[in-house]
Specification:
The structure is a single chain. This protein has a domain of 34 residues. The chain has 127 residues and is mainly alpha-helical. The protein is 46% helix and 0% strand. The longest helix is centred in the middle third of the chain and has 21 residues. Bound molecules: flavin-adenine dinucleotide (FAD). The site of flavin-adenine dinucleotide (FAD) has 16 residues, from α2.
């Protein structure tokens, strides 16, 4: 977050930007440990909107900066086993679609076809 804010301030012409870091280098906190996955499926609208902007930035990163980025947009699959969770995810999917995100609701067999070998017996889904 700090590095991103510093970058955007500098790019917007804020002049000299000072980034204060307590460790010996950057990326030694959560960012250096994360798996690098990105998705749109969040439950709050603000997070979905942030992810839309973030994915846009990720996709144009190489051309914008002339740097390689090993980017794969393979999609995310969530399995719901509790009725309440399933209802919450359905509501989330409707909100995400309203913001232009391509989200599908699958039946358990359809999820199994999408990911062969996945144990979907206990999963709930669209009938
Ligand atoms: C194992 C793991 C896997 C994850 N996988 C994913 C994933 O796949 N996808 C995803 O989107 N998110 C993932 N996350 C979450 C993601 O990594 C974090 O949400 C994100 O990196 C947080 O960024 P940040 O800049 O807020 O924090 P950080 O990257 O931790 O940066 C904060 C910086 O502030 C510095 N700092 C703190 N206090 C001070 C101080 N007082 N003075 C000076 N400097 C200070 C720290 O040293 C650190 O460098 C994962 C997290 C973990 C731990």
């Amino acid at each position: 977050m700090g590095v991103s804010i510093a970058y955007h301030l500098a790019a917007a012409g804020a002049g000299r930007v000072l980034l204060v870091e307590r460790e010996s280098g950057l990326g030694l906190g959560s960012t250096g440990r994360c798996a690098g996955g990105f998705r749109h499926q969040f439950s709050s609208e603000v997070n979905v909107r942030l992810s839309i902007e973030s994915v846009r930035m990720l996709k144009s990163f190489s051309s914008d900066h002339g740097l390689p980025l090993d980017l794969h947009a393979d999609g995310y699959l969530f399995l719901c086993r509790e009725a309440a969770t399933w209802q919450a995810y359905r509501g989330g999917a409707a909100m995400q679609r309203g913001l232009g995100v391509d989200v599908w609701l699958l039946s358990a067999p359809e999820a199994g076809e999408l990911v062969p070998g996945l144990a979907v017996e206990a999963a709930l889904g669209e009938p």
